[in-house]
Design brief:
508 residues; alpha/beta; Pdz3 Domain; 2-enoyl-CoA Hydratase, Chain A, domain 1; 2 domains; six-stranded mixed β-sheet; 13 helices
Length: 508
């Protein structure tokens, strides 16, 4: 009996404990909020603390949900994402993308976008592009890849090929022992004012102190007309056009350049797109039309395809080789009468640059030549999506961007030429057009007949064959104790500014 009594008591006590526990979980004390209410309040506070919460929601719903090429692939994933968990707009936008397949989409602040479109860098710039030719020449020295005429360095004779020997008290060849020193060097390279020493292409050294300037460019880095006086054996003038970016606001510069080529009787063109990361397709259509063979006016240049939603709404369209009447058919050819075209390309040639080549290939066939290095490989493009939305601010059409906060550029479409061919591409870097003549970027010469890629084109025009590549090799910059310096500059392939292909649409 005693045993039974204890057993009963134990059971009874356990039962009471269970009931008490259940009651404490299911009910709150008077005035106490439930766990669900506390969680809702916490989320509400997070939303209020996120000053850009509404913008983030709009970006997910409208820009990614409607226009993004892979909108269905990311729909379920994105619905579960909470905007307030992402501190910056950059982190939020990246989280919404279809990675790893999408390696192109990006966004800009209003200030950065407007600066880019105007062709002006208001501050914080030297107006030069630096490069270290490590891949081809094992050279860790820093050279000027290209320079704008308005650069503060230009008046000291600094041109493409000039070598930077020292800056801000740092000698380029001195030993770099740690990542901290490497970071310090990079930071000091863009310190203003600063003292620089360059070795110019004629062998002279020059030292000067300068500060940042407002740098303006029209995106045509170099424009030349070569004759037999420049390169013996040329039977007619050859045009050279080094184009950095497809910007619709600078169409008149392109028009003037090709008017000069036509007036000079240019019959063959060398179009240098080795640093051209893309831009507005409107300018790709203009450039393609100038370079197109006679009799191609009104023929298909490329077609644009969108996601299923936009396709059902009739967004897919065909773009044609232009005419003087700006209509798909009729008018006269915009072409300047050339009979052969050479493109110089490289790893930074992307998007609109590749679109131009791809669109012209079916018409030029064996008369279209590629020289240089393999291009970037980007068969798709973006719409320029303003925030606040374009539909709410028609002022954008009038050039009033005072309300603009962000510009989003998600991948929205793919392009194919008249043969149904896409730009060669994979989801990973390393795709693109392969040149018929592989030549490294000759960073040691300014743009002219001595530069290896230009010389190769001119030689092929005269002889029908490419010369043996003869670009000087450099063993590497040595430190005081014989160690090679580490690379100071980032790879261009990791820069989201490359691979731009833009369409300004009147449908928003």
């Amino acid at each position: 009996m005693k045993r039974n009594s204890l057993s009963y008591t134990s059971v009874l006590l356990c039962g009471v404990a269970a009931i008490a526990l259940c009651c404490s979980c299911g009910k709150n004390l008077p005035g106490e909020k439930s766990a669900e209410e506390r969680e809702q309040e916490r989320i509400l506070q997070l939303k209020k603390a996120d000053k850009e919460y509404d913008i983030k929601v709009s970006v997910r719903k409208d820009y990614i949900g409607n226009y993004y090429y892979w909108n269905e692939e990311v729909k379920e994933k994105n619905a579960a994402l909470e905007p307030y968990n992402y501190q910056s707009m950059s982190d939020w936008f990246k989280a919404l993308l279809f990675t790893p397949k999408d390696r192109w989409s990006w966004y800009l602040s209003a200030a950065d976008y407007l600066s880019s479109e105007k062709g002006t860098v208001s501050s914080g710039d030297w107006g030069v592009s630096f490069v270290q030719p490590t891949d081809d020449f094992k050279d860790y020295g820093i050279y000027v890849r290209h320079i704008y005429p308005s650069s503060p360095f230009a008046k000291y004779g600094v041109t493409r090929g000039a070598k930077l020997l020292s800056f801000a008290g740092f000698y380029i060849g001195e030993q770099i022992d740690s990542e901290d020193e490497l970071t310090a060097l990079n930071n000091h390279l863009y310190q203003s004012p600063s003292t620089f020493t360059f070795r110019l292409t004629d062998g002279r050294d020059t030292t000067f102190t300068e500060k940042f300037a407002s740098v303006t460019t029209n995106y045509i880095i170099s424009k030349k007309i070569f004759t037999s006086a420049d390169f013996p054996g040329l039977k007619s003038p050859v045009g050279y056009f080094n184009y950095l970016s497809f910007k619709a606001n600078f169409k008149e510069d392109v028009d003037r350049a090709f008017a000069e080529f036509k007036a000079a009787g240019v019959r063959k063109m060398i179009v240098d797109l080795r640093y051209n990361g893309g831009g507005d397709v409107a300018l790709a259509q203009v450039l393609s039309s100038y370079l197109a063979p006679a009799g191609t006016a009104g023929k298909e240049l490329y077609t644009t395809t969108h996601n299923a939603l936009l396709t059902s709404e009739g967004w897919n369209e065909t773009t044609y080789i232009g005419t003087s009447s700006d209509k798909p058919t009729g008018g006269t050819d915009m072409g300047i009468g050339i009979d052969e075209v050479y493109f110089i390309i490289g790893g930074s040639s992307a998007s609109a640059s590749e679109l131009t080549i791809n669109g012209l290939k079916p018409y030029w066939k064996e008369k279209l030549h590629l020289v240089g290095r393999q291009s970037y490989g980007k068969p798709n493009g973006m719409y320029v999506l303003y925030y606040p939305p374009h539909s709410q601010h028609k002022e954008y059409d009038k050039g009033d961007f005072s309300a603009l906060k962000y510009v989003f550029l998600p991948i929205c479409f793919y392009e194919k030429n008249s043969l149904g061919e896409e730009i060669p591409s994979t989801a990973d870097p390393g795709s693109g057009f392969i040149p018929e003549e592989s030549i490294p970027d000759d960073i040691y010469h300014d743009f002219g007949v001595e530069e290896a890629n230009i010389r190769a084109c001119l030689t092929h025009i005269v002889t029908g064959a490419y010369p043996e590549t003869a670009v000087k090799s450099v063993s590497g910059v040595k430190s005081s104790n014989g160690l090679v310096c580490k690379s100071l500059l980032p790879k261009s392939r990791t820069d989201r500014n490359y691979g731009l292909l833009l369409k300004i649409s009147d449908k928003f």
